[in-house]
Amino acid sequence: MSKFDALRKAEEYNLDLLCVAPNAKPPVCKILNYGKYRYESQKKAKEAKKNQKIIEIKEIQLTPKIGEHDLLTKVKAALKFLEDGNKIKVGVRFKGRELSHVEVGEAVMNKFLELTKDSASIDKAPTLDGKWLTVILSSKVKK
To answer: Which of 21, 26, 68, 126 is a plausible cystine mate for 135, CB 3.0–4.6 Å?
Structure first.
């Protein structure tokens, strides 16, 4: 049907002509109430946005010289973040000459991973980026 015939037909019913697929050969159009269509599409978009789960990445910073109790406190915070359904980025920061002894920081990271292994799984393995040794963890239990 030609464009003018379709417009005339839509006008007969007091409705609008909406082009659904303009790139198709021939273009595909619908006769509908555009206001109602727009309202329903906005309603669907709002519902979809409401149902999506936004995952935040929480960051925990450690140092190679961290004390035992401080490490346990950081682990406790990490477990709380995982319980809430967030991902965790754990970073060991090296200052000055500490960078020449990366193995000390790796030992701290491995101890942290050992303490959280029951409730966390590794998304991204530990990598050294400049002065940071980082790893990304996520919860084993899905909500």
So the answer is: 126
Taking a C-beta distance cutoff of 8 angstroms, is the pair 101, 128 a contact?
A: no
For the chain (length 143 residues), average pLDDT per consecutive 10? 89 91 90 93 92 86 95 95 92 93 94 93 92 93 63
Give the type of residue at 84. Answer: D
One-letter amino acid at 22 equals P
pLDDT in the model for residue 142: 64
Residue 64 DSSP class: T
| pLDDT of amino acid 54 | 78
- Please state the length of the chain: 143
Dihedral sign from CA coordinates of 119, 124, 125, 131: negative
For the stretch 129-134, contacts whose Cβ atoms lie closer than 8 Å and that sit 24 or more positions apart, written own/partner, are: 131/93, 131/94, 131/95, 131/99, 132/91, 132/92, 132/93, 132/94, 133/91, 133/92, 133/94, 133/102, 133/105, 133/106, 133/109, 134/89, 134/90, 134/91, 134/92
Q: What residues are paired with 30 via a beta bridge?
A: 18
| pTM score, whole prediction | 0.64
Query: For residues 73 and 69, what is the distance between their CA atoms, to the nearest angstrom?
Result: 6
